[in-house]
Amino acid sequence: MAHDENAHICYKVPELFFEDGNIVLSAEANSGTHLYKLHKGVLFAHSSVFSDILSLPSTTSAMTDVNEYYESTPVVHLSDNPDDLTSLLKAFYYPSWRRNAQNCVQVLPTLILAQKYMADDIRSAIVSQIEAEWPQNIWQWDSLENESALKPEELRYFAIGPFGGPDEKMPASEWDDYFPEPASAIQLARVADIPSILPAAFYQLSRTRPSDDFDEWRSPEGTQLDPMREFKDDKRTARWSRLSKDDLYRLMLGKEAMSEYASALRATIFNDTKFCSVVCADTWKYAPSLKSDDILADLQELCKPRSSPGALMCERCRMKVNIRGVKERATVWNELKTFFHLV
Ligand SMILES: [Zn+2]
């Protein structure tokens, strides 16, 4: 049988097979046995479960094979998927992070294993990085928006760019890969219990068109954009298929709620603002409407200095309008949980 033929094939996992290691972990895949030669001290430091397993005499541990050695080093067999285990162990030895649209997909199995092995510091570090990718307040949201307002040719020169430094060859197709992707973030938040990222992820998804699907725009490997389709510089996509039915419904409810909120707000936003003159008040006849597909951006636009043909709003009234805009945008941000039924 194919499985039996492959069972004896041993594969030393690159980067996780240290000659000076003092314990070998093994995990089975159809392709053979993956071997990791590691240091007990490192495993102890990160995981209380590893600490327990490796401290037990081999004869009493359900996860060890009695008296088994690989090149004179004791072996512990684990039942985990080798790819997932590799991700977790790499987090022990090579902690690093780079913002990427794939992150929420990639860290999901790592977080599940970190929970199983009670690697609490690793879990906390990953959750902190994911939370840093998804704005927790309106100021962080605006900061991310400012980045997304850059064109790819500008982003190439960012020292904190997706390639760790300026990269003049970054193609426009990488643009979407540089920003966090909302549907997989929502899936991760549900599975790994990270509710703090939901409001921003839902808001980003609410302004993403259903036809702009992450996978549709890429090859099956998820890395190379389909060369037959033109990828616009500012296109943002989502992995729509990862959204559960319940969350899709929450998204629809949120869009409806925001649309109604925007209509009501546009009608009343400056009712209690005391403009200094009829001239300043009249500039509002020429103000744009709140379109509601991106109410935060619309409010920012609405509360910029306004003018009417032949008249400019005075400095004092501009200040009032600006402050009102700041206040209303902060309120909208705080209402996102309610709009999307996240509470
Ligand atoms: Zn005025």
Automatic annotation (TrEMBL):
InterPro entries: BTB/POZ_dom (IPR000210), SKP1/BTB/POZ_sf (IPR011333)
Domain (BTB) ranges: 21-93
CDD domains to which the protein is assigned, alphabetical: BTB_POZ_ZBTB_KLHL-like
Listed name of the protein: BTB domain-containing protein
Native organism: Hydnomerulius pinastri MD-312
